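Researcher: We plan to redesign the surface later, but first we want a full-length starting point. Tokens attached.
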């Protein structure tokens, strides 16, 4: 039986998130969070912060949903946050402070032309290589333009495109970079290479060892779930058991030094008591 999303996954925030600036502050405080609550993903969601609803209440298509939907397009386009289908291939926000650690952890602080190296190394399939190459050549492209550039215009090509663009987002190579009204239906997502959309964070990631990045991400997760065991981190981040144990050990050691009187991080009152409706 699937475990439902629990209120404990949500951040205790002092008031409803009502503006883009407040959304950025929330994402910065969380470090990384979901667009909507997701089963078996123990992370807060911006949806609950905007609506103040329980994570198990379901998604309501109202003015709050419409506002949130605009933000997930505008905020990354304005380079305020990173947004992509990442955890469980679902909509994920990552703060710019945490983005270098994610890129270092995934070892994807790449150059625009690294698609051939990743393909030759078996890290991406040919469809993902073609999308990456098109973005390198043309810059940010909306979905239909990108499919056309990659010759994935057919129904079967659309299936291949959807799989490949998610693969690139899960590697953090591609970022959702706004939206464009290509048809009379819903606006299409626009995509860009992360290394061009966020060059400062990409450069910073190149100076961080993967093991140090994992420890930083584990420490951030412990702010929300102080007693998290290694298997929980391994499932969430896709780490091996050894990597999860090592990251958690380093994160806990740093926490003990803070308790012992070393310079501590700022207090985060919003992490105290889980979700508050």
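Model: Full-length starting sequence:
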């Amino acid at each position: 039986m699937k475990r439902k999303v629990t209120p404990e996954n949500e951040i205790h925030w002092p008031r409803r998130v009502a503006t883009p600036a407040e959304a950025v502050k929330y994402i910065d405080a969380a470090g990384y969070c979901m667009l909507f609550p997701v089963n078996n993903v123990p992370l807060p969601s911006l949806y609950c912060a905007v609506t103040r609803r329980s994570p198990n209440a379901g998604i309501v298509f109202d003015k709050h949903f419409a506002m949130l939907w605009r933000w997930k397009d505008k905020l990354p386009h304005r380079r305020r946050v990173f947004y992509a289908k990442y955890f469980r291939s679902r909509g994920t926000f990552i703060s710019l402070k945490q983005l270098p650690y994610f890129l270092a952890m995934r070892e994807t602080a790449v150059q625009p032309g690294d698609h051939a190296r990743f393909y030759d190394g078996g890290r991406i399939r040919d469809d993902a290589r073609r999308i990456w190459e098109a973005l390198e050549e043309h810059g940010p492209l909306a979905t239909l333009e990108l499919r056309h550039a990659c010759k994935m215009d057919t129904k079967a090509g659309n299936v291949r495109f959807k799989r490949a663009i998610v693969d690139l987002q899960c590697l953090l190579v591609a970022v959702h970079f706004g939206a464009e009204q290509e048809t009379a239906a819903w606006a299409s997502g626009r995509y860009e290479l992360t290394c061009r959309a966020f060059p400062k964070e990409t450069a910073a990631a190149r100076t961080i060892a993967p093991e140090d990045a994992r420890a930083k991400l584990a420490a951030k997760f412990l702010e929300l779930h102080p007693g998290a065991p290694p298997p929980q981190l391994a499932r969430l981040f896709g780490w091996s058991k050894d990597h999860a144990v090592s990251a958690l050990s380093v994160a806990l050691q740093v926490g003990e030094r803070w308790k012992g009187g070393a310079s501590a991080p700022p207090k985060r009152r919003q992490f105290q008591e889980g979700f508050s409706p």
